[in-house]
Amino acid sequence: MLTEGRAGGGVVAADHVSLRRNNLSVVLRHVRAAGPRSRARIAAETGLNKATVSSLVAELVDRGLLREGRAESERGALGRPGQLVELDGSAVCGVGAEINVDYLAVTALDLGGEIVTERRVPLDVAHLDPGTTLDQLAELISGAVRVVEARGGEAAGVTLAVPGLVQSTTGSLRLAPNLGWAELPIVDLMQERLDAPAYPVRVDNEANLAALAAYTELRKDTDGKAEDIVLLTGAVGVGGGMVAGGHLLPGGHGFSGEVGHMPVAPAGGICGCGRTGCWETVVGLTALLNKATDPDDPVRDPSLDVEQRLAEITRRAEAGEARTLRALADVGTWLGIGGAILVNILNPNALVLGGYFAVLGPWLKEPLESAIRDRVIAPDGGGCRVVQSELGFTAAVRGGALISLDQVFLDPTLIGRDATGVAQ
Amino acid sequence: MLTEGRAGGGVVAADHVSLRRNNLSVVLRHVRAAGPRSRARIAAETGLNKATVSSLVAELVDRGLLREGRAESERGALGRPGQLVELDGSAVCGVGAEINVDYLAVTALDLGGEIVTERRVPLDVAHLDPGTTLDQLAELISGAVRVVEARGGEAAGVTLAVPGLVQSTTGSLRLAPNLGWAELPIVDLMQERLDAPAYPVRVDNEANLAALAAYTELRKDTDGKAEDIVLLTGAVGVGGGMVAGGHLLPGGHGFSGEVGHMPVAPAGGICGCGRTGCWETVVGLTALLNKATDPDDPVRDPSLDVEQRLAEITRRAEAGEARTLRALADVGTWLGIGGAILVNILNPNALVLGGYFAVLGPWLKEPLESAIRDRVIAPDGGGCRVVQSELGFTAAVRGGALISLDQVFLDPTLIGRDATGVAQ
């Protein structure tokens, strides 16, 4: 029933302790969404009374989550200017850590979403055993947590981003075909390597996390309006992440977003999954390289990383090289053929291009939009716009850091329990 | 951000008035989901204290939404047996009203989801002008409301179910190809015909409403656990409705679920939408009839309604008629080919067969499941089971009635404002 849906799928009763916690969360989330503002304005905008807001802000300042900012200087403010309060970036960070086919990455974001530290290390993950890769990732994570702690902050949690089928509830990776990994208790393995840390460790699918990051970015451009989005991550494989009604759609068992295997090209090639004509056989990076280049083309040199490869493709497209442009137009059209299926099913406000699709977006976008217009049943292509993500290959790790911060925004009392904040 | 998502996409602050309203809603929804029970048990299960529950129940009884039931007789109940409280079916009804290609239907459900009145009238809607059809539907709705009022109840609202693209927010029907309707302010037109009624009138897509009804039914079998579902409605066209995380996925502009136009059969026939090879050209009812029968077969007689047609197909399948069985197996396989796309994208717990797919489910299910097992990337077909809806062609109108009741469950103070219930 919709009713229960609004309450997150269950019936939630509120007593006065949870009311206080809820209102702390409301104020903290409101300042994040709406930006620095006075206590009076927070009261007006949330419907809470001013005395309550003052007490809530005091507790959030005590917990190190908000801080006093500059004095209000807005036109039309009545009475004497109030002091603004803003998110305090120093107390707590969320950490995202990504394992992908050819790199590892880690990012720590403060409460305001600002980068505190980030690293990215090329690594031929598909040819290493999982233990070695996880050892190296654990070192990157520990390094990031040390940077956070050196600033006097604490890690709210670490979220691992993996390109594969993940069971978040049990912390296990079921299958990551492009890594060659299967059935790994990845959260347990990482917790061992981190010496059973105080912060929680989770795992999620990289396209889901990238979608979350893209959604958060887009919201800044839509005045905080929650839009439905479908994010497509283009790499060797193609993944999809969906946000609807303000939250991720993980699916009943966490396996949603396997868009790369839509059978759109019956005459197409053999897919890594063993089937014929999957979408990723016509829009994956390998398909683009096969269309745009000969086998001995230097752009296919295995020692190049993906960004070097894409820089070369971009250079050729900018130079008007005919074969490159034809290949990009072809991939763009196929992207629209599969994209139209997603738009017909989900009717998102935006189809967001991530990964290599974002980098080559200037050439993919027009044939993609044209294919969507032709194939979507709803008027005006369902009102769906095509957007290039500005996060590129950092979206998943950023989404991991954001989701790690989520628990703090839901329950600010998790942080600074030793502070002087009152309990009620 | 997930955080806001949990609160329905926005930041919601709670004061003591909204706390009371929230808790009335919690108790009412809990009794609906969990069944008749004592005040003590409601307190234990919701986490509210007993005195608060007694006061909330008293107000809900005053408002005519709960009533005293039989005495508790459960094993293991401590102390003297408590009085059970249960939903009171007499005060309020939700009304659903459906326009489909060849019939109109109306259903009024009481708070407990029991049918108070229902009617279904064959009508060749596609060959009438919209005004005539809406006149007839308005009469059916008025008749149902009179039945509700004659029992001393009131209508909480009316929801129109339409097989087409609907903009719920503006109450307009954008396009219903199989009715031949486009750009109708359908809610306004109906409100005029109902003489500006006191209850709200809404419109939604029939597959969305059918999905909501199917979800509500399934929840009874899963101990109230909220599952993600995709419902497929099989008629001349094929529609999809999706429930995830406890709520409908309407899409950014309300146009989701256009699954009938997935391009799965490039060698297939011409679709009503003008394209070639859409899913409904291989799984719609017309496709089945074309495969199973010759043009002069009496089962294609235009004067038959869909249930008579399906009864005859069922008779032939039960008799082991080879051509009918081949046609059903073929449709089942195509159903699985498109179904696998949906399961790969959405990973629902259940794929629910509605409309004619439900009626002929015994023959469609096995080839469908086999096609899904072959094509879904996640282990064990993503854990998705195939379920035949028991609601058949009544799902949409039932979903309309349920969604009409939703506002009452969200805010019980909407009903019985003249009752003696205290305001706080």
Automatic annotation (TrEMBL), chains A, B:
Domain of life assignment: Bacteria
Membrane spanning residue stretches: none
InterPro entries listed in its UniProt record: ATPase_NBD (IPR043129), HTH_MarR-typ (IPR000835), ROK (IPR000600), WH-like_DNA-bd_sf (IPR036388), WH_DNA-bd_sf (IPR036390)
Residues of the HTH marR-type domain: 27-71
Pfam families: MarR_2, ROK
Alphabetized GO MF terms: DNA-binding transcription factor activity
Cited PANTHER family: BIFUNCTIONAL UDP-N-ACETYLGLUCOSAMINE 2-EPIMERASE_N-ACETYLMANNOSAMINE KINASE, ROK (REPRESSOR, ORF, KINASE) FAMILY
Family, as annotated: Belongs to the ROK (NagC/XylR) family.
Identification of the protein by name: ROK family protein
Organism encoding this protein: Kribbella flavida (strain DSM 17836 / JCM 10339 / NBRC 14399)
Taxonomic lineage of the native organism: Bacteria, Bacillati, Actinomycetota, Actinomycetes, Propionibacteriales
